[in-house]
Each structure stands twice: as structure tokens, then as C-alpha cells.
Amino acid sequence: MSEKIIPVNLSQQFKSDYQRYALYVTYDRIMTDIKDGFKPVQRRLLYTMLEEGATTHTIKTATIAGAAMRYHGHGDQSLAGSVKPMVNWFESYLPVCAKQGSFGNIQGDPMAAPRYNEVRLSDFALEYIVGDMREASDSVNWVDNYDHTRKEPEYLSSALPMAMINGSFGIGVGKKAEIPCHNTNEVIDAILTLMDNPKANIVLIPDTCQHCEIFDDANWAEISKTGFGFFTVRGIIETVQDYSNENFKHRPAVIIHSIPDGIFLDTIINQVNMLVAKKKIIQIDSEFDESKGDNLEYVYILKSGTDPEYIKNVLYQNTSIQSTQRINFEMLNGLDLIRPSYRDYLLFFIEHRKKVKYRLFVNRLQQINTKLHEKEAFIKLMESGKIDQVIAKIRSYRKDNTKDSNELIEYIIKMIDVTDLQAKYIINANLGNLTPAYLKKLKEERAQLYQMRDQYFMLTTDDNAITEYIRQELLTIKQKYGCPRHSKLIHMSSAKDFIPTGPMYVAITEKGFIAKVPAGSKFNSIKNDVIKQIIEIDNADHLIIFDGAGKVFKLLVNKLPFDARTDLRFIFKTFSGNCVKVFSEDLLKKMRNKDKTSVRYHIVSITRSGFIKKMELDEFTTIPSSGLLYAKLDKGDYIQDLNIAFSNCSILVFNNKRVMTIPVNSISTMKRAARGNKTLKSGNLDGMIILNAKHAPYLICVTKMGKLNKVAFNSIPGVDKEKKEFSLIRLSKDDTIQNILCADDSQTLTIRCFNAGELQFPVKGITIGSSVSGGDKVLNLKNDQIIYSQIN
């Protein structure tokens, strides 16, 4: 035979082949069938278990997988792997297989080799998945297997809509079916409702195999109507303030008790390890698994002083223990890929179940009629008065095998008026049982069969009767296999609820770096840099950051890693690198609310060259991600200081030699783009403080040569005169003012030096001087320098 080469276009051939592959994957691998709710591989495995006798005892998984290859043309490893989710309680809401051996666990360990474990049909599956077809194969349709050597069921005789109860997940070419599990009782109740009222509005909410929490913010009615949507689910995390065991005493801890469907504990553990490595969590001390049987209990021991509620929220936000899941209720109806509403799917189930039951009842009716036909034959024989002649004739024929049995059949038909089939029953019967006592039993059995025949005749002719039968069957299933919801619905009022809350310390450095640690913790040493400001703020709050170039930025605290310096120029591209002041957004909101009273608050800023202005807090209600311009600056000028001041108070501005008090009410209120008004004429400005004589009666002047001068606020000449420059200390020739601070005797002055480190001075112990005093020398700064000073 000569070879014939047919030229084809490569791209067209690829397209054609890929389309065929895509159709094969969709229809023969990934999609569940609307009739029984199973994928092809699941259906074939269940049927193989029935065929191989894995009903009351387990059989090696390898045996089942090998036998199932007669129907499913794939490798035995993939078939054995498909058994795993059908046996585990944490992967199937209502497992259809029972196991012996290891099929993996909730931690994520793989199943043992198929030759080591065994499987069988679960009691539920035996009775309500394959029960009807096991009794009557005609109750379902049968099709050829892939090589046309055997017959397999087109669908199983499922008594429940298994696609909805156990869910389904499959990825194919351009297709992704995602059907979550639902509560058995709720699904059955929905079916019963539709039996009474097919137009009823059905709304069902997914449930989980483990006890989890589902947010109720999804539009469940729309999801149930369209078969598509999203919902958020999270596992249960217990927080413990006082956890103790043989290794730990009275320590805070978080304990993971459950995880969403499709997630394994190993995944969560790996994600937490990544958070620790990236320093997004630094409070975990140790971890161990206390799980027993089906009860998950994975413990994270926290460092003393840690807020376990914060760690719980961090885990929810950054790991798969809280995840958003998609619902795509796609399945196959014959060759059609459909996405029905929940109501349409359940209505289809009801009608399909009626068909399966009708075929089962017809089969039972045929069997009853056959038995009745047999009973009638024996009763006729025993009541005919000719039983002895007939028995004698049958025995003579049994002794002589050469005689034609048709003559015997004709003889019995003529003797007692029966059919040829009834004559055969009599010929093959045990003649010793044909006694008067047996006649009574036969009549009782015939009466029972008549009752059963009437019952099944009604079930095959009356639609209401078959509906009622299915109703009672569903109620029985609900009683035997139903359960309350596993997942609890919880309400999430706003997006902020998704962000871990808890008090934090945030530090800003001189070089424009930012760092975060839990409140109460200390910052690691910062080489070649110094901390400029530390603020206590909630992790879910925003930082309002003012830079020296006249721009303000907004940053969510939660976005900062723990105990790691981050350059603000990497976060904000237009950040100047000089951070002037940081506030919490919550503080600004509280100040705005107080504006509604007699006390008003303003943002007051001063520039290095001496310009001052105040701005309304409303100017900072909306800050874009790129930042907001809040000051117009001359070339070479920059913002030196900035603070929040209230009306009727005064501020004090100072440079290295002189100071000036300015009432806030006298400062012009300007827009963000304004430059401001000039203050001190003698040189540049070094700082600004808010004066509050009632709560802080002293001013403490710190000089760069290490002197302290504590002056009573009310004793300063000229302090009450508007915009009048005056001195706060008598400075030596080479000394200058490093800082001026408000304080009372209950507070402490903290001075940090490069070499000496952090030094503290109780305000009460500092000598009270006057505005002409030279101050007390408290530091020897011959080879050292003050970094900063502050009141605590």
C-alpha cells in the first residue's frame, strides 16, 4: 500500500486538536454531572467498589484503582488519589467512602501508598448513592466504556444533590467549576419546600467541613439566583492570655482550631514562617501541634506582654486561614455546560429523582407480579383436587429423562388451567412443600404481594404518591445523616475590621526612616541614625506624616513590617527625606470633632527662615497616596517644626539665642498654598512648643554645652507680650540653645547623647532659675554631643 501524505495548516491543526482536548477535559474529567453530582472519576470509582464487593468490607485501594481503569482510562495513581477526598471528613461534607489506613490528614500529610490502605463504600453511599441501582440496574442508564468492552452507569442513583452537599472543584481549559459544600439539613429543607411550592425563593449559604466562620456580607440571594459570587470564610483561632503546660507557664497564645475547606495546616504554618522571616510577626516564641484525632489544635506561644488578639488578626489578614472563595455553580447536563440557580438545580434533582424512583418501582412491580404468578400456580394446584395426579406425573417424568418436558407442561395446563410459565414453576418446585399447611402460608404471602402490588402500582401512576415517597426518604436521610451547620455567620461592619488592631510604637528617625514595634517593646539600636519622634498608635490607624518640603502623606500602620527600618522615600516617591512631625489620623479626627465646641484646633507650622501660619484641620481630611502640598516655601527654605495648637493658647518659637511667644489667635489662618508671616528677626528658627502654664508650669532650656535652666513660666519677663523677643537663659559665648521644653515636677527630662547614651533627669530635681540665669552644668560634652531631648 502506498503512503499518502495529506498537507494541513499547522495552526489550524493545533487549534482543532486543542479544542478536542478542551472538550474532553471539560466533559470527561473536571465537571460534575447534574444528575448525580459526581465527576466521571468519582462515579467510576464508586461503581467499581460496588462491582468488586467493597460494600461491607474494605478492599485494597490499589485493587479498586486498577479495576476502575476498565472504565477510566487514566493511571492507577491518579485514580487512587481521587479516592482520598471522598473518604476524609475534612474534604467531604458527607463522605461517600469509608477507609482503613492512612488517607492523609488535615495537617497536609499525603496518603499512604494504595497498596497499604483500603476502602469501601460508606453506609450512606451504599444505601443512598448506589442503593437503587444495586437493587434494580434498570433504574439508571448504562453506556459503553471507552473501549466498548463493558457497560458502566451513565449516572448513579443519588438520593441527594451531591454536587451541592459535597461541593466540587475542577480546572479545565478556560473553565473552572467552584461549588462549595452546603449543609445537608438545609439542602433537604430546601428540596421539601420546593416540593410544596416549586416557585419558592431558595437562598442557601455555603457550609464548611470544619467549624469555621463565614462573613454574612455576601449577597446570598443573588448568588443563589445566578450560581456565581464570592464569600469570605475563616478558620477558628482561639486567643489565650494565660496558657500553661509543662514547658510554658502563664504565657499568651493563639490556637488554630479549624481552617477553610481546601486549605491544609502545613500551608498555614509555611505562611506564618514567611511572616516571621519578613518580620511582619516578631512576637512568636514557639509552636507545637496538640491535635488529637479529628480535633485540630495548633498552638503558637507568644512572647510575654504580646496581645494575642493582634496576632490573631495578623494571621487572618496574611494567611489562608481567612480567604475569599468564589462560587461558580457550573456543571454538565448531558452535553450542555450550564450554571443553574440553586432553585433550578434542586427542581431538576426532584424531577430526576422521580424518574429514578419510577424505574425502580416499575422493576419492583414486575418482580411482585412474577411472584404473584408463581404463588397463584401453587395455590391453584393445591385447591384443584388433582394434586396427587400431577405430583405422580411429575415424578414419573423426573425418573425418565428421555421424555419430552413439553408434554408434561401441556398435561399440567389442561389439568389445572394454568399458564405454561406457571406449569414450569410447578415442575421445578420442591414437591415435598406442597402440603395443606404450606397452602395457608402461600395465601398469606399472596395477600401481602397484592398489597405491595397496589402500593407500587399507585407509585408508578400517581405523581403525588412518588413525591411523598421521596419526601419520606429525605426525612429519613436527614434523621440519619443530617447535622447542624458547621460554620457560623459573622458580621463585618467595615473594611477596617479586616485589619489587625493593637497598640504599636512607631519611630521616625533623623534620616527619614520609619520603624514599628508592639507597644511596650524597645526599638533595636539604629546605627548612624537617631530616633526623632516616637508615637503610640493603633495598627489599624493611619499615620499623617509631614515632611520638611511642605508635603503631607498618609500611611496605614499595618503596612509597616515589625522592627525593621523602612526608608520613607521608598514608600512615597516625592518624600523629601526630612520628617518634621507625625500624628495619628484618629487624633486629627478627634480634634476636628472638638472644633464643634468653643475650643478650636489648628495645624501651626514654622519654616527655618522664620515664617509661621496656621491651617484648619479640615484641610487634611483627604490626603491622596501621592501626598498633599501644605506649604509654599521660598527657595532654600524648609519646614522646621509643626504642631497642633488650640485657640486661646500661645506658642513659643526659638532659635539658638532668642525666644518669642505668639498667641495662636493672632496667627493668620491661611490656605495650604500660603507661605505665612515672618516671626523672629534675629536669625533662623530652631523650634516651636505649645505653651500650657496650667498643666506645665515650667520651661526647661537645654543648651548644646550640657546646661539646664528651669524657669517658672509666670516669672519670665515679656512672656505675656505679643510677638516680643526675649531671652530664656544667659548663654556663654560659645553656647547655644539645643531645645526648650514644657514640663511639670511629675515628669522626667530625657537627653540622648551619641556616646553617653540616654540620660534621665527628674524635673523636680532640676534647680529653678530665672531668665537671666546661666543654668546648671549637668553634662560633660567635651567628646560628646546631644542628639535629642524630650519630656516623658
Can you walk me through this structure?
- This protein has 792 residues and is an alpha+beta fold.
- Helix content is 31%, strand content 25%.
- A hairpin with a 6-residue loop joins strand 4 and strand 5.
- The mean pLDDT is 87.
Q: Looking at CATH, which topology of the domain at 502-691 would you report?
A: Neuraminidase
CATH architecture of the domain at 502-691: 6 Propeller
Q: Tell me the fraction of residues in β-strands, as a range.
A: 25-35%
**What is the helical fraction, as a range of percent?**
25-40%
Identify the overall geometry.
Answer: elongated
CATH C-level of the domain at 502-691: Mainly Beta
Q: Mind telling me the CATH superfamily name of the domain at 502-691?
A: DNA gyrase/topoisomerase IV, subunit A, C-terminal
Distance between the termini: 101 Å
As residue ranges, the low-confidence spans are none
β-strand number: 41
Oligomer: single chain
Return the structural class: alpha+beta
Q: Quick one: biggest sheet? A: 5 strands, mixed
- Number of discrete helical segments: 19
Calculate the mean pLDDT score and round it.
87
Radius of gyration: 43 Å
